[in-house]
Amino acid sequence: MSGILDLVREDLRGFGGYSSARTEKLQGDVWLNANESGWANPADALGGSRRYPDPQPQALRERLADLYGCDVSQLLIGRGSDEAIDLLVRALCEPRRDAVVVTPPVFGMYAVCARLQNAPLIEVPLVEGEAGFVPDFAAIADAAIAGNAKLVFLCSPSNPTGAAIPLAEIEALAAKLAGRALVVVDEAYAEFSEEPSAIGLLGAHPNLAVLRTLSKAHALAAARIGSLVADAELIAALRRCQAPYPVPTPCAELALAGLSDAALAQARERAAIVRAERARLRTALASLPGVVRVYPSQGNYLLVRFRDAEAAFRALLAAGVVVRDQRAAPQLGDALRISIGTPAQNDRVILALASRKEAAA
Q1: What is the CATH number of the domain that holds 273?
Q2: Rounded CA gap, 252 and 214, in Å?
Q3: CATH classification at residue 176
Q4: How many structural domains is the chain composed of?
């Protein structure tokens, strides 16, 4: 036993969850146990959608486990990373008691899920320096211990700031918080990063978990396939807290096809293009008048500060280019986040910003 279940809410440690018709291991050729339609919908050519899906499609689960280098028992599939974040907060945090630590400016769903669970939110801001925005690990550990935190969310590469976290720092934090809190590393953009995955640390640190997704590098955002990789006991406990049928059959089938050897090879090729374009776009943007700073990034985006972020945002919109306005985020009152597109799309970004009045002045 790993002891990881001590971090789960006491009232949920023995929780059995909902036993759906698909969780029962029964065999037959006439299925009348789930109140499904006996006929297919006219729009469903293959007829498969009249049946409830496998809660955790085995073939997809095995493929993802192979892709991420973990055991199948360590992997939970959900509706994007968002569902896994929500599950973790609900399963580990007693409302008004167990806190969640986040490092703003960062992906907002960690804080949203904490608020929905009425879990105290502890913010330990990223520190801006020559290397960009980096976590203050000593402050994170101190805040987690003092604030009775059950969860610490780290984003690597961090969204929207772009920096990846060295594995040594993640490992040290997990060791310091062993028995106290689960350290969750969100690796949504890992395929674009030079830093190895934290999944390799799970064997030595049961209080570590890793989020992965097919939304970014694998171009399957609409399929909503995310994975949580963690200790097998924690995965089993979270599965009992998950909705009965979280993975629609068409999404699972699309994801499995999108993880073929040929598709994976293409994803790697496109990730290499993104990395090259990221460097090109960063150099080009940094040379433009009105650009204050372009941060180094290991994601598929760049965080850019402008002397007049509103003018830059409007110039891009006028050119048909939509970027993410970050000005409401802590420490980012003059910043926009620009995703790395195709070379032609990136050229439009450069041209739009180079042509605006401030740049021409």
Answers
A1: 3.90.1150.10
A2: 11
A3: 3.40.640.10
A4: 2
DSSP, residue by residue, 111-154? HHHHHHTT--EEE---EEETTEEE--HHHHHHHHHHTTEEEEEE
Count the Cβ atoms, other than its own, within 10 Å of residue 174.
23
**Cα 128 to Cα 141, 239, 271, 355, distances in angstroms:** 19, 38, 27, 30
| Three-class SS state of 352 | helix
- Tell me whether residue 16 is in a domain: yes
Kindly report the pTM of this predicted structure.
Answer: 0.94
The strands making up 149-155's β-sheet, listed across from edge to edge, are 75-79, 225-229, 208-213, 182-186, 149-155, 99-102, 121-123
CB 310 within 8 A of CB 316: no
Query: Does 186 fall in a domain?
Result: yes
Q: What is the pLDDT of residues 266-305, one digit of tens each?
A: 999 999 999 999 999 999 999 999 999 999 999 999 999 9
- Centroid of chain to Cα 284: 29
